[in-house]
Amino acid sequence: MSDVLVIGIAGGTGSGKTTITRKLVEKFGDEVSIMYHDNYYKAHHNLPYEERAKLNYDHPDSFDTDLFIEDIKKFKNGETVYCPVYDYSIHDRSDDVVEIKPTRVLIIEGILIFQNLELAKQMDIKIFVDTDADVRILRRIVRDINERERTLESVIDQYLTTVKPMHEQFVEPSKRYADIIIPEGGHNLVALDMVLERVKAHLSNSK
To answer: Cβ(198)–Cβ(125) under 8 Å?
Structure first.
């Protein structure tokens, strides 16, 4: 039986998932590895940029979740994993990979990681970060313009046509599979302390 503690962190776009992930890494450093579901978007090398930009990236079918599950199982088995890398500026998978060496704690992050029940089964703790929609869209606008080279118009258009409806159809309903729901993400210090203590206990017990 694997002694890897797998923590799933889900929630809508801009909800604060990464803040919680970052706090865990700050606290436990090299004892924590992270795998992002976003890196497992399917490759679309055969489509021109204009067509790739129109795809619905918030639907479960846009991810190669089978490969993601396979890599998580390898990690839990003590194997080094080579994750694909997704390049948001070109809407396609890049040629790079990220080497992830086994550690005793694995964080899995993504908007839809509880939606696939086979994927959800891989997790020991499932955390859903619950943040108001108006806060999430503002964070997404800032992130996509500053980090992903998007225009304001494209971010708003994508939000209204795919992000919001897919959130309501898939992300929000997956909240019922969570073990812990954290309002306001990384700003909820009480909930964050509980998660940090759980990880600390795991690391102490598995030494």
So the answer is: yes
Nearest to 176 by CA among 138, 120, 122: 120
Alpha-carbon 191 to chain mean position: 19
* CB 63, CB 108: distance < 8 Å: no
Domain count, the chain: 1
**61 assigned to some structural domain:** yes
Would you put residue 185 in left (φ > 0), alpha (ψ -120 to 50) or beta? left
Query: Tell me, what's the pLDDT at 207?
Result: 62
Task: Report the alpha-carbon distance of residue 200 to residue 207 in Å, rounded.
Answer: 11
User: Which of 121, 112, 28, 127 lies closest to 73 in space, CA to CA?
Assistant: 121
Radius of gyration of the chain (CA): 17
pTM above 0.85, yes or no: yes
Compare 9 and 138 and report the one with higher pLDDT: 9
Distance CA 19, CA 203 (A): 21
CATH number for the domain harbouring residue 151: 3.40.50.300
Residue of 181, 207, 197, 146 whose CA lies nearest to 3: 207
Q: Would 153 be classed as within a structural domain?
A: yes
pLDDT tens for each residue of 67-96 = 999 999 999 999 999 999 998 888 889 999
The per-residue pLDDT for range 45-75, each reduced to its tens digit, is: 899 988 998 888 889 999 999 999 999 999 9
